[in-house]
Amino acid sequence: MRRKLPSLVLAVLVALATAGVATAANGGFTPVEPASPNAHHIQHAYYLVLGFTAAIFVLVETLLVVFVVKYRSRGRARAVEGAQVLGHTRLELIWTAIPVVILAIIAGFVFYELPNIDSAPAAADPIHITVEGHQYYWQFDYPNHARSIGTLHVPAGAVVDLKVVSPDVIHSWWIPALGGKLQAIPGRINHTWFKADTGSYDGQCAELCGVFHASMRATVRAESQQAYQHYLTSWRGTIGKQIWNGVCATCHGNLGQGGYGIAIANNSLLTQKSGLEGILRNGFTGPGGAMPPVGETWTQEEIDALAAYVKKHIYKSAPVGATSGG
After folding, report:
1. Which stretch of DSSP H or E encloses residue 141?
2. Residues 210, 186, 38, 246: is their CA dihedral positive or negative?
3. Are both 10 and 100 inside the same structural domain?
């Protein structure tokens, strides 16, 4: 036992040091740096829980090492029982009461923070934006009927109220720096909010929503008021490219060369607007796989913009004698 004790102590110290390094500088155990008031309050609750759990971990591991040393066999034969420890009523009451007190403190603090997490500032005049989750992309609809795919544009410092919905399956809206997760549930409207500092914040769907769920990413770009207004007035000029990059290219590759989905760059369907629209609105199931109806909520203007973009930038006519993909 004496030969094993230094190794045991070393292993415990290494585990504690590793935990400390991981916790520092957001090594994986702590939230990303918050950039919205509600995210700050979530972080406060997180660190309270982390503090209690870290202290309990250190206490338990320390007592474990102490007991291993104190109650080691000391050369006693395996058949001989060690010293018996009888019950200790006061100690048992203490270790029962302490967890109750800890849980009460955590619950009280979380309920104290909840209003700051859930409710936007009362005096704010929020910007109302609809977040719509699809297999497998995020669509954003703005107050003036502008739309974006994959990237949400907002003015920095403004309170943004999000109406989170889904027309197909359950998704989960999550931008870690801007608050907690919120489900997008078919037939139900959920709300969340944030007030972002200037910058770009990444996240992704946090609910397993299908076979290509891992690529359902999102970005919130908090920019100047002028840049935000510019997007609202110029979005039509980029929506075709946005749809291709944020929806089609996710499966079929940025040049239509194939990836998770089949190669489509040589498919003449890209030049046939009516056929392309049918697949986008109704989906497709065939020998090449299945595609959900990714464009079922797109306007005719957006379908036309995508058709024009892929015909000009993606479609490559097949070589003579070659067969286009399905």
Report:
1. strand 137-141
2. positive
3. yes
Report the alpha-carbon distance of residue 242 to residue 247 in Å, rounded.
8
User: What are the CA-CA distances from residue 224 to residues 215, 229, 235, 252 (Å)?
Assistant: 28, 9, 16, 34
**Residue 57 pLDDT:** 93
pLDDT digits (tens, 9 = 90+) for 49-92: 999 999 999 999 999 999 888 877 777 777 877 777 777 888 88
The domain boundary, picked from 237, 267, 282, lies at 237
Residue range of the domain that includes 102: 5-73+88-118
Q: Is the peptide bond between 136 and the residue preceding it cis, with omega within 30 degrees of 0? A: yes
The pLDDT, as a whole number, for residue 7 is 65
Q: Is 322 within the bounds of a domain? A: no
How many angstroms separate the first and last alpha carbons of the chain? 69
Task: Give me the phi and psi of 265, to 5 degrees please.
Answer: -60, -30
259 and 214 within one domain: no
The residue among 73, 52, 92 whose CA lies nearest residue 2 is 73
What pTM does this model have?
0.79
CB-side exposure of 207: number of CA atoms within 13 Å?
18
Question: What's the structural domain count of the chain?
Answer: 3
Tokens representing 316? 């490559």
Domain end residue (candidates: 237, 271, 296): 237
